[in-house]
Write a structure and sequence with these properties.
Shape: globular
Number of strands: 7
Distance between the termini: 100 Å
Largest sheet: 7 strands, antiparallel
Number of helices: 5
Order of helices and strands: HHEHEEEEHEEH
Helix content: 25-40%
CATH architecture: Roll
CATH class: Alpha Beta
Number of domains: 1
Radius of gyration: 25 Å
């Protein structure tokens, strides 16, 4: 074989090994770098959209239910001014052939919901259904309104049975500085939620009995 060809093959082999070595040594970019800063900026943008919704969209801003409760009972700090991180932001979708909408749940109620939760980078961390939404096959999950993160409780008590929303929960109303499974600390949580049913507790506190009295 021609010496020049052997020499050329040797150079190409050396270069390929060098490139492979560089590729292995190059660290992958951290998808969660500056995560707290990015999430804070994201909530800023959502707060702006909620304040000035695009044409044809309906949004709702709901104050942390704990702050609302303290204020109504005269326990709140009267000098405290809520900031953007004290609200849940909700994009409202048209009712899916459900008319009229039902009642809103109380903190003592249980709800059946369909949902999908994701991070600001699109990573899905929890869901009650897979693939596209299909009312015929999707099974809702049930839990007490008071047994979930503050942002969920706040939003649920503003929803009505049969309603479909997309909620944006600041990290302070979610898991804050603590990570939880696939959710990094300081994460804004985005949920697509359908409130299927409001379930009242049985017994003396049964809400349906109270409604009849009222």
């Amino acid at each position: 074989m021609n010496k020049n060809i052997l020499w050329l093959l040797g150079i190409l082999l050396s270069l390929s090994i060098g490139f492979a070595s560089c590729s292995e040594d190059t660290p992958e970019a951290d998808p969660y770098s500056d995560w707290a800063v990015r999430n804070n900026a994201y909530i800023d943008s959502i707060a702006s959209v909620c304040a000035n919704p695009p044409a044809g969209e309906s949004w709702l801003r709901v104050l942390d239910y704990k702050i609302q409760t303290e204020a109504s009972e005269g326990l709140g700090n009267q000098t405290y001014t809520p900031g953007k991180n004290d609200y849940v932001y909700m994009k409202l979708f048209p009712e899916d052939n459900i008319e009229p909408l039902g009642i809103s749940p109380l903190g003592t109620d249980t709800v059946a919901v369909h949902y999908r939760g994701k991070l600001i980078n699109g990573t899905v961390f929890d869901e009650s259904f897979s693939g596209d939404w299909n009312a015929a096959v999707s099974e809702p999950r049930k839990f007490a309104v008071s047994a979930v993160i503050t942002g969920w409780t706040t939003a649920l008590m503003q929803m009505k049975e049969g309603q479909h929303v997309e909620m944006y929960i600041p990290n302070g109303l979610g898991y804050g500085a603590v990570s939880s499974d696939a959710i990094p600390s300081y994460s804004t949580l985005i949920f697509d939620v359908r409130l299927e049913e409001v379930i009242h507790p049985k017994g003396p506190d049964d809400r349906s009995l109270k409604l009849k009295v009222e």
